[in-house]
Amino acid sequence: MPEDSELLEQIRRGDQAAYRALLSRHARYLFGIAHSLSGHASDAEDLVQETFMGVLTSTFRGESSVRTWMVKILVNRAAMLRRTRKRHPESALPPALPASAGSSSRESGGESGVEAKLDLTTMLNALSEDHREVIVLRELEGLSYEEIAKALNIPRGTVESRLHRAREELRKKFKGYLSSR
Length: 181
Prior knowledge:
Helix content: 55-70%
Strand content: under 5%
Radius of gyration: 18 Å
CATH architecture of the domain at 1-94: Orthogonal Bundle
Order of helices and strands: HHHHHHHHH
Distance between the termini: 45 Å
Low-confidence stretches: 92-110
Number of helices: 9
Structural class: mainly alpha
Number of strands: 0
């Protein structure tokens, strides 16, 4: 199986099978990040499509892994989407459902996966854009500090301080959350 960088070279030469291989290898991973950043499946699908369009129109310089490079493209596209939504709020989707919405599994004794996802979305939406990005990339996607720094185009120290602040913000805003479950 060819490496990602080899697939990129094949794609540059017009190989559609290489494009499909890269897409199938990374689309689900990128969708997870996009959904965590945007909070909406339809936005996440659009962001993944735009990311792969960026793969076709951008040049990979080999300064990071192909996956990290694609995450950087995705994060940039997500930031552009947020800026557009701020300028044109009528194009924004309704906010994600609050944690109290959805299934009544709490009453029946068990926590549902849907409810847990709603809770996570609520928590992520409570963070600033900068804090949400580093939390998603580190805690949900498992990127290293170096990979996050490259994806966000910021120094490693900034990644560390944003993570620290984001975690503190979550602790303060959701103090007692786990004990109420």
